[in-house]
């Protein structure tokens, strides 16, 4: 496979790379329009503002949508395998950023889909693709993956504990507190309390119920620390791993390659 050449290479460098002056300028412009589009979405959801400035906001939205559409087409044009980009995570996000507005022209009752435009915020992560951001992001993802099994076992233990404590408080409160009307309701209370959320919609009134509640509250603080510690250990292990570079694959537009990689780990194309 050949690298993009001529105008395609120049556009690829501007659109997909952040290590050049032109690439950084493009990313800053893209960031500006993303922020403006999100502000427009929020303002359109305020009835009083939309009533006064609806036409202006509508015009701005269409200008931004057209710019994003042109950008999306250019991204497909400069990669060797457009379908790889279209089906990638960022390709799907880019498409969802423009579809709702176009759908509103064809389907009059699809206005509620415009809220999906808030997904444009995800595109900010594409802009923050400098090495340090990619490296830190990958470190967190890898730490979560490495911790998944232990966190899953821990959550199973918490769920089992919630069932036991919920059943105990149900026995303690039954007959004296109508809010603890069933074991599932009591388990809900246990989960809310053990996670330190504490809505306050249900609370025990008996001495035994309050004693159990006190135990659950203290236990909640200890439980919060466990998954944090698990993930922290995995993050520490990843500190000595090599960084990844910000270069995008010219074939499939994927990021996240090892710092010394010569070929794309997703499609095998030469970087």
UniProtKB/TrEMBL annotation:
GO cellular component: voltage-gated potassium channel complex
Lineage: superkingdom: Bacteria
GO MF terms held by the record: voltage-gated potassium channel activity
Subcellular location: Membrane
One Pfam family linked to the record: Ion_trans
Transmembrane intervals: 26-44, 56-75, 95-119, 151-172, 211-233
Signal peptide: none
Keyword field: Ion channel, Ion transport, Membrane, Potassium, Potassium channel, Potassium transport, Transmembrane, Transmembrane helix, Transport, Voltage-gated channel
GO biological process, one term: action potential
Entry keyword annotation includes Ion transport: yes
Topology versus the membrane: Multi-pass membrane protein
Ion transport domain location: 24-237
The protein, known as: Ion transporter
């Amino acid at each position: 496979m050949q690298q993009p050449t001529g105008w395609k290479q120049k556009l690829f460098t501007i659109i997909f790379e952040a290590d050049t002056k032109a690439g950084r300028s493009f990313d800053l412009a893209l960031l500006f329009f993303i922020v403006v589009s999100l502000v427009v979405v929020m303002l359109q959801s305020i009835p009083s503002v939309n009533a006064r400035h609806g036409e202006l906001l509508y015009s701005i939205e269409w200008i931004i949508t057209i710019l994003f559409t042109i950008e999306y087409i250019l991204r497909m044009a400069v990669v060797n395998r457009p379908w790889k980009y279209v089906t990638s995570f960022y390709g799907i996000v880019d498409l969802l950023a423009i579809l709702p507005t176009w759908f509103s022209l064809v389907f009059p009752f699809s206005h509620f889909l415009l809220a999906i435009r808030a997904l444009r915020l995800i595109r900010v992560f594409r802009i923050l693709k400098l090495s340090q951001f990619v490296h830190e992001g990958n470190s967190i993802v890898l730490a979560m993956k490495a911790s998944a099994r232990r966190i899953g076992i821990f959550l199973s233990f918490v769920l089992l504990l919630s069932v036991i404590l919920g059943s105990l408080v149900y026995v303690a409160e039954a007959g004296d507190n109508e809010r603890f009307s069933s074991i599932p309701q009591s388990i809900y209370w246990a989960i809310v309390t053990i996670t330190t959320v504490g809505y306050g919609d249900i609370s025990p009134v008996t001495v035994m119920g309050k004693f159990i509640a006190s135990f659950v509250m203290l236990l909640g603080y200890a439980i919060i620390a466990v998954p944090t510690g698990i993930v922290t250990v995995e993050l520490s292990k990843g500190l000595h791993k090599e960084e990844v570079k910000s270069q995008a694959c010219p074939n499939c537009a994927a990021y996240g390659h090892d710092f010394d990689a010569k070929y794309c780990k997703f499609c095998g194309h030469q970087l």
